[in-house]
Write a structure and sequence with these properties.
InterPro entries: HU-HIG (IPR041607), IHF-like_DNA-bd_dom_sf (IPR010992)
Protein name: HU domain-containing protein
Radius of gyration: 21 Å
Strand content: 15-25%
GO molecular function: DNA binding
Distance between the termini: 11 Å
Shape: flat
Pfam family, one: HU-HIG
Organism: Odoribacter splanchnicus
């Protein structure tokens, strides 16, 4: 991607790497590929994902981070307005509730090793 240096727009533009969105893959396709690589059936994999989701939700709600082996970790993040008395707190006062994903080193290494780079013509 050809871009100007944002700190000095008088310099000539340079080419920078940028990810290209190549479509979306659905869960069904992932499940079929996993089933094709293992002794597990597609139903077993769906069940494992469903159970992992339930367990992860419980652990995250309890304040724990959740490690997904060889994939990464999940962590719940949020903020709230301040209260003079803790008894005044209500769940509705939470803001910016989000799930943060921290990829594992193995996952990042695998992704980087498989990147396809195409140069502009």
């Amino acid at each position: 991607m050809l871009r100007h240096n944002p700190q000095n727009r008088l310099l000539p533009p340079k080419y920078y790497a940028a990810p290209v969105f190549a479509g979306r893959r659905d869960a069904g396709e992932m499940i079929r590929q996993i089933a094709g690589r293992s002794v597990l059936s597609a139903g077993d994999i769906v069940d494992a994902f469903a159970n992992a989701g339930e367990v992860a939700a419980n652990w995250l709600a309890a304040g724990c981070s959740v490690e997904l082996p060889e994939i990464g970790s999940l962590l719940l993040e949020f903020s709230s307005e301040g209260f003079d008395d803790p008894a005044d707190f209500r769940p509705e006062s939470l803001r910016g509730v989000r799930l943060r994903f921290y990829p594992s080193r193995q996952l990042m290494k695998a992704i980087k090793s498989q990147l396809n780079i195409s140069l502009p013509e």
